[in-house]
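Before drawing any conclusions, I looked closely at one protein's amino acid sequence and its backbone structure tokens, quoted below without any editing.
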Amino acid sequence: MPGPDDGRLDLCMAGEPLVALAERALYWPARRRLIIADLHLGKEHVFRRSGIAVPQGVTHDDLQRLSQLLGSTGALSLWIVGDLLHGPSAPAGWKDVWQAWRQRHEAVDVAVLAGNHDRWLARAGLDVRLLGEVHSDGPFLFRHVPRRDPGGKHVIAGHVHPKARVPGLPRSWPAFWMKEGVTVLPAFSEFTGGHLVKADAQSALLACAGGELVALPRGGTHSEGR
């Protein structure tokens, strides 16, 4: 069985086999579906318009990683659990990069749950399928904001951008935050901060650290603010 040291880990959630990937994604083999959260397209454009210096090529690099994941998993669909966008979808370089990427992957069904930054999504013209704010499939309920489902389905969410410190390694790392009834995905985009999270008796952290997955002991506190 694949282990954390090779960048993937077999999981069982709500009785369903899933695979956690060190590139900040979840793969659902039964649906051939790659699941990510918080891509935040256009964030660098929004920051530059505000006079804040940001790295060049953020969107290109994120989408290159996404292409590699689609290829390595053989996924036929991509679900984005909120915050595909970061701001208005006015003409900008990031949108040209996205459209070129979408053409290269036109056979992939790209579907999006609405996040708090996605208020312009319906009129953005990004060639994606809109799933609304909440969507149920199998034993899972997909939504952006992590909140337990009163109906008992396992929630897969984003929004929080969980990060963790790994003993022996510098900096903090994106992490899967797995709680009872809710799994919070790490932010997919490299250009995001993170929030302090705690692993306790009812939750666990799986850090995405330098191409590896590191299971952190329960009860630790990790990460840094945005």
User: Anything to note?
Assistant: The chain has a mean pLDDT of 84. Helices lie at 43-49, 58-73, 93-104.
